[in-house]
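Trying the structure run again after the queue cleared.
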Amino acid sequence: ASSSSNSGSGGRADSSVPNGVVSSGSKAEQQQTAGSGRNGKGGSAANGPADKAGNSSGPAAKSAGAGSSAASKAAAGGSAAGGAGAGAGGSTGAGSLDTGDNLREILSNANVAQAAATMALNDKPTQFERMTLNMTLNNETLDTAERKHQTGATPNDTLTDKVSFLVNNLTVDNMPSKSKDLGSVILPKYIEWFANYLVVKRAAQEPNHHRTYVVLLDALAHKDLSKNVLSTTYYYCRALLESDRAITQTNERTLIKQLGSWLGLLTFAKNKPVLANDMDLKQLIADAYTRGRMIAVLPFVEKVLSGCKDTKVFKATNPMIAGILSMLAEIHAMPRLKLNISFVIEMTFKTFEVSLADVCPSAALRDLPRVQMHNPDFSALPEAKAPAGAALNPALVPPGAPPALTPPPGAMAGAAGAAAGGAAGPP
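Done. Tokens:
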């Protein structure tokens, strides 16, 4: 039926399509075909008068209803709005088809834009988006510090991809072969770059593979590489500990703890001390106490000291370790200390299998000033409550019994004499 009407109606025959499909009987199709043959100038017989009036559904509904059921009539009536719009748009002549397509495209784009805006307002971020955001927060301080850190010569993309591939497939079983292949790429030209890559991209982000990377350094057995990895680790630990985000963001503190574990494996676990020239742990604790940064520093110290667990040198009786434990015992005994910091101190003592009661607290922090306002390490002072029956504003009423209202002795006599003398004088 559509092909017949197109052949006989010319440019506006497209307006008869919504009305041509309402009838499924062969009689209605024959009437529509015959009508389109008689109307060779401005559309089909069923739609020709409708195009003039701007409504293409009336006559078509009549012809469709003659040979269809009640359902066909309802369908024809439902297409009235669409037919009217098509007739109104199709009254412009041969360009009506383009105008209708443009209008439908505009409406379709508007619906897409509205749907996109609704999804942006109502949809919650997916788990992948939240994970990506967390990784961005974690890497922000590291990226800032990395831009200031000199890494020496940088390999091209091909060598970088090869290093990443070798490290991704690194295990304890294939360590001899993989370490040999890796050494042929990075040694000795890219030592500084690989030290930075190993600390920032691997050790700081992958705490479960710390021991594998330590075995890799031992397998490479390059003195300059080990020295560069240790100095790079100190650099990023200091940068993270001085960051303001370490006080407010949990992700930043997690990153600090992971680097602390890595530092402990490079030093104490190998029976090597953390030298005061590189990082004085006691001074770090004292500075964190005065500045209100123990919430970030003490977990870092606990992770560094966890490297002493299997060592034979750095026990609780070691002078350096004993000094740190004594300072931590002093902090633990302070009033209003936050529970999370107390828990970190207890975990540190558990590493050395020592009880808090067995360690004498130091007096190193007793006379040091500390931040009082908005200190995240200590709970706020409780507000003082007025006793029952006190006045609403005790600052206006002095404590004790109210003052006596009777005048002192002799005051009444003096007042009476003055009154008498005044009455005897001239008016």
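Residues 96-122 form the longest helix (27 residues). Worth checking whether this holds up in the mutant runs.
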